[in-house]
Amino acid sequence: MVSNVFHPLNIFIVGLGGAFLIPLIYRFGRSWLPGVFVLALAAMTLISGVSLWRLAQGGMPIDILTGGAHPPYAIDLRMDLPEAIFAFSINLVALLGAGAFVRGTYGAMLLCLLLVMGVQGMVMTRDLFNLFVFLEIVSVATYGLLSLQDTSAALSAAFKYLMATVLASTFFLIGTVLLYATTGILNIDDLIVARATISGPIGFAALMFLLACLLLELKPFPANGWGLDVYETARSDVAALIAGGVSAGVFFALVKLLPLFDDQLELIAALSAVTFLFSNLIGLQQTKAQRLLGYSSIGQMGLMTLAVCLLQKLQAESSVLYLVIAGHWGPAIFMALWSAGVGVADNFLRPFLTAQRAEVSTLAVFVGAIGGASAFGILGLVIGPVVVGFTAALIQFANETLSRRRHVAPAGRP
Amino acid sequence: MISTVVLATGLALILIGLWGMLTHRNILRIIISFSLIGTGTHIVIVAIGYVANGTAPIIDRALSVADAPSRAVDPIPSALVVTAIVIGLAVTAVMLAYAIRLYDSKKTLSIDAFTESKW
User: Fold this and answer.
1) What is the pLDDT of residues B54-65, one digit of tens each?
2) Closest residue to B94, CB basis, from A129, A140, A152
3) Domains and CATH numbers, chain B
């Protein structure tokens, strides 16, 4: 089945094999450890890169069918263009961030490999239960990575994250099983084709459970304190991996399942819009760089979810693909910057942000909303306040920096 | 009939677990509640695949291919539940590890003591 070394299935072989080898290498040749870790990440990047190149040249999508059978007897993993773009960018970003992990314990490298592999599983699988399994692989790896920081605050934040995500996974499992009870199908493509047969109270409950899991995992406002605490207290590289990798996997899962939620598109869009708006506004109030970046990451996921719902509503599938391509680079670049720039953020950004809270008055937000609405219509209600908020913060920042009084007197309003 | 009783038991366990998770403040009790939710879910999965008076889905002299759709228990939920149990075990182990480390940091298992993050 594996026709050559660049077959997408090898991503899982390298990921799992590397994670298996790392403890052995730790025992027998510790100095080889960083090399093997980086090599495994590089191999996964290369494999997904080759797949991406082939698909971009007009190659056929690659279907991996377990046992050589077809669904419903087999689990289908697919590598099409959107999957290849996601997989490649996740791998590339992880490779760029590898420097932060090689300095840590062997456990950190092992869990990082598992997490990156698991996210790609979430992206590639076309089977609902298999999606649950990969979601759990990613979650367990995340719990392990979060425990690397052993301050009391980090541990309690991680435990809270654990409780929220375990509840979300349970919802996903219940939703999957109820869908199976209603339709007898687990393959996502077949479920989308048979969308009309998902009816009645059990079918509706199944869809609601699935949606609840995916939305909870995307950390909607205001139920996102558990995510923010983790972003704030975890090791910066781990927080970046969650913001860039895990969120990307969950987002792709939502995009994949979105045709099932045609009746709930407005609801998802509204929740995402609220998340985007308030995450950005509250983000302005933050005094810690990592929490601010956490808000920014959550806000961006909200914006992407909003866009993907509206495009689905407009039946603009090709644009959904575009968004998948364009939207994913946000968290990816963010993660690369975060990973590479941990020192910069901690030493440079934090003193700036703690020196002055970017306080924005309600009046400015109101004016922003009115102005935005008149310029862009309904969408301006969201864009306006954010633009005004950031502009006000920038003006205040420039004002105080230029007057050079910030270390002498407490920060005043512009 | 058996299937209905099993299904109701599973759903009741899920609800008891959810209630326990939301009302208790002790970390170990919260973890036990999670286990209850998990067990309840597993029971629901098994109940969904059950066929009254059914037999194991192994085609041999006792079960012909023609009989299989009506008499054999659906094997997929059984396969799913085995996977779900393994995953549940791993997650419970991680939760208990966290409980130990949280206890080490504050010498208590009450979540009220962990005030750094808002609950």
Assistant:
1) 888 888 887 788
2) A140
3) 2-114 (1.10.287.3510)
